[in-house]
Automatic annotation (TrEMBL):
Its cofactor is FAD. The keyword Cytoplasm applies. The lineage of its organism: Bacteria, Pseudomonadati, Pseudomonadota, Gammaproteobacteria, Moraxellales. It comes from Acinetobacter rongchengensis. It is found in: Cytoplasm. Belongs to the MurB family. Coiled coil: none annotated. The keyword Mitochondrion does not apply. PROSITE patterns: FAD_PCMH. InterPro entries: FAD-bd_PCMH, FAD-bd_PCMH-like_sf, FAD-bd_PCMH_sub1, FAD-bd_PCMH_sub2, MurB, MurB_C, MurB_C_sf, Oxid_FAD_bind_N. Keywords: Cell cycle, Cell division, Cell shape, Cell wall biogenesis/degradation, Cytoplasm, FAD, Flavoprotein, NADP, Oxidoreductase, Peptidoglycan synthesis. This is UDP-N-acetylenolpyruvoylglucosamine reductase. It catalyses: UDP-N-acetyl-alpha-D-muramate + NADP(+) = UDP-N-acetyl-3-O-(1-carboxyvinyl)-alpha-D-glucosamine + NADPH + H(+). GO terms for molecular function: FAD binding; UDP-N-acetylmuramate dehydrogenase activity. Gene3D superfamilies: 3.30.465.10, UDP-N-acetylenolpyruvoylglucosamine reductase, C-terminal domain (3.90.78.10), Uridine Diphospho-n-acetylenolpyruvylglucosamine Reductase, domain 2 (3.30.43.10).
Length: 342
């Protein structure tokens, strides 16, 4: 087992925060994962599981064992007339996997092209874009259950997938996702009703073109983390109840909103931030992107403290203007590798 010490995590998190891990290991198999977990237990270290690093905020020092998930592989499982199931390693790059499914003429994930990160993280916050959430195409998730100390499989219906949420968020230290079992379609069922997607598609109503247009729209709005370190949408779109919404829309008739089940309404965080004057605005080296106010960018060598100063200021201005509290999307860790409340 190759445990490294004092490892710089800057290249492993897309916000490019300076962060030194006291202990670090890359795991490429379930067995290696189990050995690493045992090492952590023996040495009384917390475990911080690192996937693509595209949804996390890390402090400058972490006293914990950071386990970088690197289980690869795609395996064909069962098929029927309409669908094909696939078992995919948690360490597989998400976007490359989506592109691969399209080449294989397997459909469903095309709307989710270009989302950063790895396959294993996709069920955690039930990644979603352009009218599709990954949970719709997951059959089950294979995990190492740290509570029961065994490998097990969780059916999608037991994962409780909702907007940017699943059981993996409720109980973050219990499960380590090792593989995801997808059930993809053999014939496309195009979801093109979101925003400007239909117009962008033109007459070419194919899954290949859908994927191409999603990539094009994302590239035109969202900054490339290699150039502008970021974690995608920094805030969730707030979901509020009908009473709160009625008061808000009376004052701000243009607020983009999307009705939800249970008499609730989702409102666009990007619009709130933009209206509060933060689009393209910076506080020192951290700011909200000029083409999409929902994305926070580390423009130089920011630390977690700098990031917090900016996002707290954005939260305050949005709250003072609209009375709505924005909740950050990325997970915040403390110096012992544990998840913190924002
Ligand atoms: N808006 C503004 N100003 C801005 C940004 C947005 O006025 O600076 C307005 C837009 O005009 C639009 C509304 O806000 O009316 C919503 O914006 P957009 O369509 O860009 O989508 P979003 O709600 O901001 C969500 C997801 C994205 C996903 C897109 C497409 C969340 C928090 N974000 O963004 O997810 O790609 O829809 O489906 O749900 C991510 O999670 O990292 C992510 C990029």
């Amino acid at each position: 087992m190759n445990i490294e010490s004092q490892v710089q995590l800057k290249p492993f998190n897309t916000l490019s925060l300076d962060s030194i891990a006291s202990h670090f290991i890359k795991v490429q198999s379930v067995q290696a994962l189990q050995e690493a977990l045992l090492f952590a237990e023996t040495n009384e270290l917390n475990v911080l599981l690192l996937s693509g690093g595209s949804n996390m905020m890390l402090p400058e020092q972490i006293q914990a064992l950071v386990i970088a998930m690197d289980i690869q592989g795609i395996e064909f499982l069962n098929e029927d007339e309409h669908s094909q199931t696939l078992k995919v390693g948690a360490g597989q790059n998400w976007h490359d996997f989506v592109l691969w499914t399209t080449v294989q003429q397997l459909y469903g994930l095309q709307n989710l092209a270009l989302i950063p990160g790895l396959v294993g993280a996709s069920p955690v916050q039930n990644i979603g874009a352009y009218g599709v959430e990954v949970g719709e195409f997951i059959q089950s998730v294979e995990v190492f259950d740290r509570k029961l100390n065994q490998v097990t499989s969780i059916l999608a219906s037991d994962c409780h997938f909702t907007y940017r949420h699943s059981i993996f968020k409720d109980d973050p230290n219990r499960y380590v996702i090792t593989h995801v079992i997808f059930k993809l379609l053999k014939f496309p069922d195009l979801k093109i009703n979101y925003g400007d997607l239909k117009t962008a598609m033109g007459d070419e109503l194919t899954a290949e073109n859908l994927q191409k247009q999603v990539i094009h729209i994302r590239q035109s709005k969202l900054p490339d983390p290699k150039q502008y370190p970021n974690v995608g949408s920094f805030f969730k779109n707030p979901i509020i109840n009908q009473t709160e919404f009625s008061q808000l829309i009376a004052k701000f008739p243009n607020i983009p909103h999307y009705p939800q089940t249970g008499n609730q309404v989702k409102i666009a965080a990007g619009w709130l931030i933009d209206q509060a004057g933060w689009k393209g605005k910076r506080l020192d080296q951290v700011g909200m992107f000029e083409k999409q106010a929902l994305v926070l960018v580390n423009y130089a060598n920011a630390t977690l403290t700098d990031v917090q100063a900016t996002y707290h200021a954005v939260q305050k201005d949005v709250f003072d203007t609209f009375g709505v509290r924005l909740e950050p999307e990325p997970v915040l860790f403390n110096e012992f590798g544990l998840i913190q409340n924002h």
